[in-house]
Amino acid sequence: MNNGKTEIYLRTTWIEKFRLLLPRLIVYVFLVLTALPLVVAYAWLLLSSFSAEQAFGLIPKNFTLENWRFLWSQVQIGTKVFQSIWPITLNTILLAGSITVLELIISLLAGFALSRINFAGKDLIMKMTILLHAFPGVALLIALYYVLNAVGLLDRLIGVVLVKVALELPMATWMIKGFFDEIPWDVEWAAYVDGCTRLQAWYKVILPQLKPGIAAVAIFAFLSGWSEFIYAYTFLFSAENYTLSVYLKNLIGDFKYLDYGLLTASALFYMLPTIVFFLLSQKSLMKVSFGGVKG
Fold it and tell me: Environment class of residue 174 by beta-carbon count within 10 Å: exposed (0-12), middle (13-18) or buried (19+)?
C-alpha cells in the first residue's frame, strides 16, 4: 500500500517538475533551431578554409594550408593576378577607423547640442534626422558619384569615408542624444558653478559618464565601415585603393574560375577583426540600451 502511495507521489513530483521546465525547454529548443543554420554555416566556412576538397560539395576532406596562401604570396586565378592582401587590409582599417573617429566626434557634438541647447528649428532638425536615416543610400549613388567627381574625391578613400559618415551620422546622433538626455542637469550645473565653460563641462564632466554610449556608437560605426561594400565598389577604381569587401568580390569574379577554398579562407580572414572587436567590447555593449544605460 505504502509502495503504491510512494509511486504516485514520485510520479506527481516528476510531472510537476516537467511542467515547470517545459516553458524553458521550449525556449532552448527554439533558440537552438534558430541558431543552428548560422553555426553550421560558420563551421563549414572554418573547415572548408583548411581543406583541399569537399565531398559532395559539403564535407571537407584533406587538411591543407594552401587556401591561406594569400597571406604570404600573390594569388593568381586564371590569368588574373591579385595584389597582396596586406595593403588592402590597411585600406580597410583606415576606412573603418576614419569613419569611427569622424562619426564619434561629430555625433557627440551634435547630440550634446540637440539634448542641451534650445534653438530655433531644433524640432525640425530632430525630425529630419530620422527622415535622413530612413532614406536609402543606394538611391543616392549617381548623385554622390557626380558630387565626388566634382570635388576631386572620386577613387579616393577619403571620399568613401565622407559619404559613409554623412549617411550614418543621423542615426549615431540620435543614439548619442538619448545618452545625453539621461545625464541629470544637476551634474552639468555643478560643473558651471565650479567655473567650467560649456565646452569644458562637455569634455571634462559629461563625456566620462557617456562611456557606454560612446562604446556603442564606436562599435556600430566600426562594423559599418569594416563591412562597407557598395560605396567602395562604386567609387574606388584603382587596385591600390581596394578594401577587403571589394577584394572578396573580385575573387568571386564571374564564377568561372572560383576557388572556393581560397574564398572561404579570405572570408574568414575578413571576419576575424570584427570577431575580436566584438569580444573586446561586448561588456560595454551589453550595458547599453538605446536611449540610456542599464544600471
Answer: buried
